[in-house]
Specification:
elongated; 24% strand; alpha+beta; Signal recognition particle alu RNA binding heterodimer, srp9/1; 3 helices; 95 residues; three-stranded antiparallel sheet
């Protein structure tokens, strides 16, 4: 998905806490609290979608692997020119 995202569009990634329930809670009575929350991860690029569930104990491993993946695929970004950015802000502040 990262390689396709470089040439066409942007990759959207969302992460949220998930308790494992797929159906709404009933009005009468409550469902028992889950013993372990999970992390629901969704990625989308255009009309392609991908989702996965990561358990609480594996979230750190997943985030480390995801960070390495991001570092490897962010080679097309342009660096900011610090001199021109600071020069513009100083000239605006003095006038």
């Amino acid at each position: 998905m990262f390689q396709k995202g470089k040439s066409s569009g942007s990759l959207m990634l969302t992460m949220k806490r998930w308790d494992g329930h797929t159906k709404p809670q009933p009005r009468k009575g409550n469902l028992p609290d889950p013993t372990e929350f999970k992390c629901l991860i969704r990625a989308s690029l255009g009309n392609k979608k991908l989702s996965t569930v990561v358990s609480q104990k594996d979230v750190n491993k997943f985030q480390m692997a995801y960070a390495n993946l991001l570092k490897g695929n962010m080679d097309g970004l342009k660096k900011k020119d610090k001199k021109s950015a600071t020069g513009k802000s100083k000239s605006k502040a003095t006038h």
